[in-house]
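so i finally got all the pieces together for this one. its two components total, 929 residues if u count the protein bits. some of the lines might not be protein, just check the labels. i wanna see the whole assembly predicted at once instead of chain by chain like last time, that was a mess tbh
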Amino acid sequence: MFGEIHPIYAVLLDKLPLPESALDGQSVPRDSATIPPFRRQTPGSEGFLHGRAQVFYHMHDDLNWAIGGEAGDGIDSTGKIFAQALSRAGRHVFTSKDFASRIRGGYTAYKIRTAVDPVQSVVDRLDVLVALTERTVDENLDELHDDSVVIFDGGRTEFEDYDPPQGITGLDVPLTELAKEAGGTIMRNVVALGAVCAVTNFDIENLDESLQKRFGSKGESIVENNKKAARLGADFVEENYDNDFGYDLETTDNDYVLLNGDEAIGMGAIAAGCRFYAGYPITPATDVMTYLTGRIDQFGGHVIQAEDELSAINMALGAARAGARSMTATSGPGIDLMSETFGLVATSETPLVIANVMRSGPSTGMPTKQEQGDLNMMLYGGHGEIPRFVLAPTTVAECFHKTVEAFNLAEKYQIPVYVTADLSMAVTEQTFPHEEFDMDAVEIDRGKLVDEDEISAWQNEKDQFKPHAVTADGISPRAKPGTEGGVHMSTGLEHDELGRRTEDTDVRVEQVDKRYRKVETAEEQEDFSAREFGDPDSDNLVITWGSNEGALEEALGFLEEDGYDVRVLSVPYIFPRPDLTEDVEAAESVIVVECNATGQFADLVEHDTLTRVDRLNKYNGVRFNADELAADIKDHLEAQA
Amino acid sequence: MSSDVRFTDFKSDKQPTWCPGCGDFGTMNGMMKALAETGNSPDETFVVAGIGCSGKIGTYMRSYALHGVHGRALPVGTGVKIARPDIEVMVAGGDGDGYSIGAGHFIHAVRRNVDMTYVVMDNRIYGLTKGQASPTSRSDFETSTTPEGPKQPPVNPLALALAAGGSFIAQSFASDALRHQEIVQEAIEHDGFSIVNCFSPCVTFNDVDTYDYFRDSLVDLKEEDDYDRHNFEDARNAILDANKEYMGVLWQDDDAQSYHESHGLTEDMSEIPDGAPDGAMDLVREFY
């Protein structure tokens, strides 16, 4: 079956009788002549694989698992079931997805890194792979290693003449046949999960709750069939293979929640009192909308799907002017369209939250790939000059916190606030202790929203309300419709304190200054600081923003092993942002890490600190891996030395 | 709502800068009178306007208002009304704003059927930019950008609205003050999206679609005894009539559910608690 002889691999023992139900005999000829005798695994043997794997696993506390196939193979939901099972078993989970912008075909994969300790990044290593297509193996060749286990279905067309690459343990499991036995071929992936449980010494019962959660709505018999399918997969591996592959998924009693960045943004919005969401579907921001749909309604809110992003931001603007906490979410192409109305939002001093889940650009770019390329667009997009805030959460949990903060900032300073995540963060499911999302700690600050009793203080001698009153802190009062005495208009034209058009040169300057004064006030009143970690005394400073934080934190471990000390500043505030001048001046070498080609944040650091910095950029469409990032930083430090 | 509201309460202290004789004066007066007549007050009314001569209406009227970007007034009105079902929403725009740059939003606002009133000041010309063809200009209407005319048929906004499933489609004339006010009043009272295409002549740049033209040619449906605004055949025939232009309510569907009705929206979304809403912890539990 495997053709040529390979130095390291183990396959099904040819002498072991295969269950008749599992194989039709002709699709997977198991020929002992093709198996290198010294690598052969026999039941109960203390063979090569066994020993190696144990040694290997001692080196790593994490397991890296993936399922890959074509779009339409149910990769995503299968991955999610396993991720949930791991989370419920008290293990930390960090997931990533390889996917293309298509509904069927191509290559798609769901990857999970799991450990007892927190995991916040992916690494270039794959330990257990469920391959539904041969391409899945090819796509991951450089991550597979001598102790990797690949589970595949020899009965599937793609694997008829399958020839596993050198050094990989291939486990042929008749996924489709076993699924049929459990009640339907559709459960093929669940059979594979069962096989995975056997390979990783993960109690099959851990899957049950996830299966219940996934299939419960389809009826108890479906759930039972899936449980059976999982057990058939596990049993097959245990009965037919040496069941010690050296992997052992320890469980704990910890309670974790598992969610992705888009969901965290959506949950943060509801927690912050957001009641109105208008959006237009776009990868990878759509999940914010699908999360809110049906959920925000339970809190008296509403999601509306607009005809385009032009409309979405205008609807959100309308709801905000009506006094509701309002938001929209989109990605680069949508930001382009929204930039028309963005200026109106800002100059009419309307509180609005815009989540920008970045993907690779320009134009349609690589819609399903990672990039942090919209930073300049968010900072400077639109004609003329107008302040806006840009927050960049650095973890999935921070997506929640920064969204809550964004709503408060938006209302306090009557300003549009971007919350920017990126594709890899948006689709990454990550575990956190549930205490991380403490709803009791959520505080709502509506800023200078005035009621009828307060309104007279903000009226002129003709009892007209002044929505753009020039104040010391730059912040004016805000009256929502229905407030007696608060009647006013807002406009995209330059306006006076009443909100009426003006071309008066003095008033123009007054209003521009007032709007920028809000930024100064925010800088005084808010804490826009960076998160620091690593060695505080190191001369090597690495600065990053957004979702690179996790990979960088883990990269520190690798760097430390190699004798490099590094101080890291992870910046979640792009504007207003912390002043890093002292940090940059104190360091001997400064590297700015970001997922774009030109170093947009590095430009800001240079601008702020008047110091040249070294740039570490990745723009191939894939997020930084911890081990890769460590190697890159090492290279940069050595080049500078 | 207070019953002692007069239409002048809807008038701001800003004097309009429209050309003397502009149809927009009459259009706006009718809107203010209709709002007062239907029991609305400035404190509880939100007017959204786009860009163009018509866009200035938010400045000259007195109410909560937003003067937005070109062509996007309807989405703003949609957002206001969904967030605040208690607020009366009126959207004003011109033919360029509504049927050219905002044509996409127009179609979708019609089919969404959010309860608001859309008054389009249709003068069949771009006035503020000094006389270019608009989407409703005649195909042989000569302008600075179309010296031999646009050579394309004008948009029929009423037909677009009918095709998009509109529930209230009307046409009025700025100079016929009583009828215009009456029609806008009916539009306000309609539970759903109402479009009133109001002929609002441009005395400076349009010497074809003049007061005289409309006065002589418009057929008032109120005087057509056998016309039934609830009869789709009647509506279709009148709206697609190539030889006549009509004034009045051409189509009204009383059975169409408004967006608020079909989505069960009644709450004032501007009121929120001081902390996370009750039950927010359930959202976290979902992720176990």
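The domain at 531-640 of chain A is CATH 3.40.50.920 (Rossmann fold).
Chain A touches chain B through 70 residues (CB under 8 Å).
anyway lmk what u think
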